[in-house]
Amino acid sequence: MLQGSCLTPLPISLSASSPCLSSRQNRSWRTLLRLTCGGLSPPQLSSVLAGAVSNDQLPQIRWHQTADFGYVPNLRMPNTFMAVAMDLGDRNSPFGSVHPRDKQTVAYRLHLGARAVAYGEKQLIFQGPLPEKIELLADKGLLNIRYSQQIQVQRQDDKIFEISCCDDHQCKWLPVPMNTFSTQSLALNISSCQGTLVAFRYAWTTWPCEYKQCPLYHPSSTLPAPPFTAFITNQMPGHHSKVAQ
After folding, report:
1. Is 105 found in the same domain as 21?
2. Of 118, 150, 178, which closes a domain?
3. Could you tell me if 32 and 113 lie in one domain?
4. Does residue 7 lie within any of the structural domains?
5. Domains held by the chain: number
6. Mean pLDDT confidence for 220-238
7. What is the 3-state secondary structure (H, E, C) of the chain?
């Protein structure tokens, strides 16, 4: 079942409760369709041209679509799979950029989720790479991110990753460049933060990249790394934080 993607500006109170709405909506669909173990498949919102909505609104909705886990299935949304579509933005779509005309890629990504979640096919990659551990290397001015699976760095980007840097009780998000990378990890150059680094996020914007040109994908499945955000829980240099379950 596909969730509608009509982009209507949400009031703050509704937007803030979206994680609960997503999980309740999931349960309601199951009751309506008499589903007990089958999977539901909401595609994540695609991209919107700048100016259509505030730059922070659409990423928050994408995040809330996963009940604030960053991935499905999860504890709030079991037996659910999702097609990440933020890299399919269609500037010239007659239906609006949030409605890309490439339905084949959306269907391909959903069918992988159906095979893995609904039909229980083991060892099948149906999600893009998710951060698994982060390591603060303050003496080197780096934040190292290890992923749950192999990554393919399609291009290096100096804006798609951001860090929250706090100084004198004020925090702001700063874009940071990708530094080095390997088959399952990458490092961010965080030297621009002269205060305390408290969080990082990826692809937290209405239009993260052009069509299939986001920086991170899984090498064999070509699934994009989804938008993600996490707090850095310990500021001790060399400390490892687990950020994805």
Report:
1. yes
2. 118
3. yes
4. no
5. 2
6. 82
7. CCCCCCCCCCCHHHHHCHHHHHHHHHHHHHHHHCCCCCCECCCCCCCCCCCCCCCCHHHHHHHHCCCCCCCCCCCCCCCECCCCCCCCCCCCCCCCCCCCCCHHHHHHHHHHHHHHHHCCCCCCCCCCCCEEEEEEEHHHCEEEEEECCCCEECCCCCCCEEEEEEECCEEEEEEECEEEECCCEEEEECCCCCCEEEEEEECCCCCCCCCCCCCEECCCCCCECCCEEEECCCCCCCCEEECCC
End-of-domain residue from the set 68, 97, 118: 118
The CATH number of whichever domain residue 213 belongs to comes to: 2.60.40
Model pTM above 0.90: no
**178 and 235 co-located in one domain:** yes
Residues 6+ apart with CB under 8 A from 209: 86, 87, 89, 157, 160, 203, 215
Residue ranges making up the domain that contains 114: 12-118
Residue 175 identity: P
- Residue closest to 42 by CA, chosen among 96, 84, 89: 84
Residue 89 lies in a domain: yes
Query: Longest C-alpha distance within the chain, in Å?
Result: 56
Using one digit for the tens of pLDDT, what is the confidence trace for 155-187? Answer: 999 999 999 999 988 999 999 999 999 999 999
